[in-house]
Design brief:
mainly alpha, 8 helices, globular
Amino acid sequence: MFHREGADRTDRENRLVAAFLAWIAGFVNSASFLLVGAFTSHVTGNVGRLANDVALGQPLSAVTAFVLIAAFFLGAFLASMAIESQFFGRPSRTYGVPMVLEAAILVAFIALVREGATVAKDMPALLLCGAMGLQNSLVTRLSGAVVRTTHLTGVLTDIGIEAARWFRYARRGLGRRVNVTLSIGPSSSVRPSTDKMTLLLTITGSFVSGSLLGAFVTSRVGKFSLILPALALAVAGAYGVAAGKALPDERD
């Protein structure tokens, strides 16, 4: 799953990674909202909150929002530095070790978080932001910017674009079958890629299912719900590390 990078990866490999990590991100995002009142898998909301807190003269809350944004950036930066420098060696280990680190960060959050605290008081939320920044950087580099898993804004935009392409293609086919012009302008005669739409729907479905499960489990067992994604990440990361040791020349 981690042996190849970028254009060398198959669509199936990208779908597997996308499904797994989008599920992780959705779970963590819902859990963090219930535990500390903050969405931690993306930056947009925290930027809006930072601006709002500054405008309303709430410095403590503004500082908290800034630290959450900085933590996301730092996680992405460190992951990319490790990948760029090939610090851990072969690709499987390069991507496996950060996933183990992400699992460790989730465990650290479990140990530090105080349930019921507000986001302005509970700085351990920055750990989850860092973990999500790390994950987004990791999967972006692994897939060659084809996959991003911690937010859905761009994914849903791309689904809309692909849906429009499919609609134009189907409209042309239907018009030819019934011998009726169904559009004013030309319709596309090129069949859109099913692989791209499948990948986008996989990310969306996995993120939503992870969010639902995260909210359900967290509402019942609290912060210990994060043991589930931490364990999943640890197993996947350990697999990557073990695969890197087993293959002496996995770049061929």
